[in-house]
């Protein structure tokens, strides 16, 4: 059994990592850290895990943790993540980092949207952990920058069209909707039940930090710089992201061609499901799983292609994808521990 | 007191009409009809209205109803509405029709999206009941076609920009999100609690019948034909619509200019509130009221204007707007009976 | 117009008071206070109220406030309330206090469950503000202790049976369920959306501080000490309380007798609605209103009477009842400003 | 691999059975039936299961099904179930029936609450499928009557106290709250999203058919007839039951004694978790799992014991318990295929 640890395991991503790792057949979860809950049993903090994760939280000491595990998941906020990752790498441990700190190839872009980077020497080797695009590099990586939730839904949604050169690159709009867990487990007026329930709103219009992350990967697919409009919205539900993606066709194509394009692009992928023509994805059909469900529609009246992409923001958008990346790094089947059936109703 | 009736008062729009009319100081609600509930007290069907609406449902007999009221609200499905409206008009009664049957100036457009029109002779005089655009015509109208919920949010959102000629007309995308009451009170698997709760999805992508209705009014504002992409989505909440509207500027403009444009366009309007710069609307802030809350944002990176428009689909998107139209037709203040404070939390 | 103020108007009860007072025909809301929001317009803090409550928050200075208003609503936490109430009383202002500080006739009971009382000299004259029980005293009161939300639902539910001496006093169990707004608008992990959504739980079993408040009034109705079991639960909804009340009949009675008893007891009451035999109340039927909907059922197999009592915790359970008390104190109709139609769906 | 089938697999219990059986390591799901969906792939009816359950629905033909499988789950409504079960038994197939038809030892009780029994000859051998009470009998059974959802939560909650003789048998009240999936997937006004959302109500007060089922098992535990009051309520959530159980101690006991009693009674049980003193269960902590979480509290003021019992109505209350019963019947570990981690948030 491979020994793994989670640093920063008191938030929703950490909880989801524990949910998945607790039942993984090839790894043993041996350490979870939390400053706030240091010393408390996991089952006392999350009664859902009582009798399942029989560990107590420890204080996040990177040196100790590096000595105890083979691979570590870093589920800390950005900035805090890059403060600890070099310790693990130096100790020869492999790392899947769920923050934004190692997702960018261009340090300047990171620093324009976040802050000064304290471990820029690792940016060159960090791999963007989207298996469908970078599977081979992930297998060999010491350090994986696990993608953001919105970028995962958007990049998977547009990848086939962009690689085929079928989209006008200045026509791209990503209108995305997320459940509330994406905002984390910290105390905030805006995520109180009564502030969210039975309401719907946009936030950070044209200024969300996931924009450059998307543009990096979309540009790589297109082979040219891409600038998009991205609007996030908050949905009164706990989990799930639906991305509605608009783009204008750069040359004529039939609806059936688009369907075939997607079927070909994702043939053999375990975690992408293409909806049958006429069907549309729903976040509820992927809830709790690592699936990304996709549909592609042609709007003949306007010449636009509209792609719908649904994921669970905590699973495919965070912990599930992190486990898939770990599987690739360990050389075990990518789906191991991720055979969770979507949870419905 | 003006006597009014509601034909088709067993659905959510009918319920909302009763909620508003029951407290209206200048009208008396004297008749409500329902085939299903014929003879039952309203308070037995909707216990919320017990002791408030002290009427029993009657069978929908247009002749009888025309004899009993001065003005009638028709809250029937399309096709059923146009079957009864001519009777009221012939009897000299004024009509606010909440269906799609009298919203279109061009019969061919209606028939392309719905079915053959059985009362085309009335299309010429029917007025599209959006007070901010057609207030004077509404005052004089015998027949008002009350706007659809999505069109209300979209047209109010884009009106200032289109009238100012500031948008590329082939760049318009309306990504809209609605609460479940928009789907009505009929039995349907897709609106069962467990099918909706904690999920989010799009539906009728690029094929919803509100599209030509929007295009008629948007074209009127622009002075030229307009073709848009419109995508509706279902939000797990009972009420509310948020429209996220994308368009490319046809000539450069500053964010402050756009804010001023909106402030000027809606100056003096009782039911449109412009968010302060930096603020964004939420459906929860207009819930139960006739307000449309708007924000306009400039995305400098892409040259797009993004407008956010929030309404309550049952109030501003149906019954509230119908009451405002009635007020105009009766020559009383437009806000009468609509001073409802948004309901929060 | 009578000038009124709300001290502590940044929470949900304060918001609900503003919602109701903004449309009250006989009062003018002239001052609202908040330490946190001092100087900010109400419409900036609660965009729902933009254009409706055109006031800015002020710092809570009891002397200034006493000089500016005729009557004040105190919507502060217990302990903070009794620190300011004497100032208003001394200045000759009338007070409706929404905290627990002036609900108890017996100082020792208050101090056993809360803390030392800092204004015990006012306990003797403070009136428990449940109009159905204490209407005449409220009319004359300088100081009204507005009932708690759970006690309102429970006391109204059992009052007819207790006054009739029909219940075994040692058999009483109140199993109550509340929406989340009852927990207030403060930051708390337990009221975050993702912690509440799609879950249900009890809390403070056999130890909630509303217990002695209920027992005081229930004992008054019974003419003898009453000890009950009270269990509160948290429902994933914003508003509403349903109380399920169990008691054993002290002497045989028929179901129809019980129905008549309730109809007689509440005859003429504007804000109590008795469900027809066979019907049951739902919180959604009273949402946003001052109604208490009641049903009484006889369980013949066990000899128990089961009463169902539904209120809106923010309206009847707090701000609506406070406005009704103000109306009584001012000598205007009890229903003024409270003709709000329950908000559904 | 043992071949299993599900007859009636289009409802929520059938869906949950498919979710669990699809990943069960010792069985192969080989047939699922539905009249409505005959011939359609499961993944077309439930897109959540696309790529996971690769079967098409077949018409429910008991003879054919009996020939194809070793064990069958009957997930039909009562009355329909007993029409097909004898065919499977006669063919030598073992059956787990999720309806009420084979839960009663006394035919007269069944017939008083349901209808005439068409297969009374099987009542004698059918075993009530609550493993904690009847594990050995289940192992040997040909036919298991899988418990109702409410009875599972109530019986597990009271079992230790009743077996210890610690409760006054005429003092028992079960106040239970269930998510909406308990009402099934059929079309019904009362389970539409807008009718349920943000509301709470009781239903079938003192007349629900789960009452005699509870009394049968509670009486068995007590060694004497038991009559209870049972009140079900509808919670706006998809899944989960919380039972709040009241009873008076028949002799004095300390809180610590009660805690020990429960710990002893359920020692070694895989699917019952006793909350630590001071903690209370929540439905969200058992969601999607086969756990029953319990807490026991002493109300010293009244001498009552209050037990809180939380289950997932579709897993422990239906499909999960059915799979546990199957495991026992097959002689494999009871937990096989049920190691699902509770799904949170």
Overall description:
Four copies of one chain form a homotetramer. Chain A has 345 residues and is α/β, with parallel strands linked by helices. The first copy, chain A, is 31% helix and 19% strand. Chain A has helices at 12-21, 42-45, 62-68, 80-90, 107-113, 131-140, 149-163, 193-196, 210-222, 255-265, 315-330, and strands at residues 2-7, 27-33, 71-74, 94-97, 127-128, 143-145, 173-178, 201-202, 229-234, 241-248, 272-274, 292-299, 304-311. In chain A, β5 (127-128), α6 and β6 (143-145) form a beta-alpha-beta unit. The two termini of chain A are 34 Å apart. Chains in contact: A-B, A-C, A-D, B-C, B-D, C-D. The interface between A and B is large, with 49 and 49 residues.
């Amino acid at each position: 059994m491979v020994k793994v640890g989670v640093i920063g395991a008191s938030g929703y991503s950490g909880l989801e990592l524990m949910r998945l790792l607790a039942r993984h057949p090839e790894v043993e979860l041996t350490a979870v850290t939390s400053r706030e809950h240091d010393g408390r049993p996991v089952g006392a903090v999350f009664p859902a895990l009582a009798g399942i994760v029989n560990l107590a939280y420890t204080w996040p000491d990177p040196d100790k943790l590096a000595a105890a595990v083979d691979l570590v998941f870093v589920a800390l906020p950005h900035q805090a993540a890059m403060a600890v990752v070099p310790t693990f790498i130096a100790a020869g441990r492999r790392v899947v980092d769920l923050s934004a700190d190692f997702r960018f190839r261009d340090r300047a872009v990171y620093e324009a949207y976040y802050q000064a980077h304290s471990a820029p020497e690792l940016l060159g080797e960090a791999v963007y952990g989207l298996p469908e695009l970078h599977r081979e590099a992930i297998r060999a990586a010491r350090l994986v920058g696990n993608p953001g939730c919105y970028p995962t839904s958007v990049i998977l949604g547009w990848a086939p069209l962009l690689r085929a050169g079928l989209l006008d690159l200045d026509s791209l709009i990503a209108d995305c909707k997320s459940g509330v867990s994406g905002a984390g487990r910290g105390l905030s007026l805006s995520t109180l039940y009564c502030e969210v329930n039975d309401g719907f709103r946009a936030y950070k219009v044209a200024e969300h930090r996931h924009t450059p992350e998307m543009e990096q990967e979309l540009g790589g697919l297109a082979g040219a710089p891409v600038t998009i409009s991205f609007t996030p919205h908050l949905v009164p539900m706990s989990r799930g992201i639906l991305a509605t993606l608009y783009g204008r066709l750069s040359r004529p194509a039939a609806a059936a061609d688009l369907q075939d394009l997607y079927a070909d692009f994702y043939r053999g992928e375990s975690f992408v499901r293409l909806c049958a023509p006429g069907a549309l994805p729903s976040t509820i059909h992927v809830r709790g799983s690592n699936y990304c469900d996709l549909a592609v529609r042609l709007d003949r009246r306007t010449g636009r292609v509209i792609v719908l992409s649904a994921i669970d923001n905590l699973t495919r958008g965070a912990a599930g994808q992190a486990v898939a990346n770990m599987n690739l790094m360990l050389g075990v089947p990518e789906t191991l521990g991720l055979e969770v059936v979507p949870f419905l109703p």
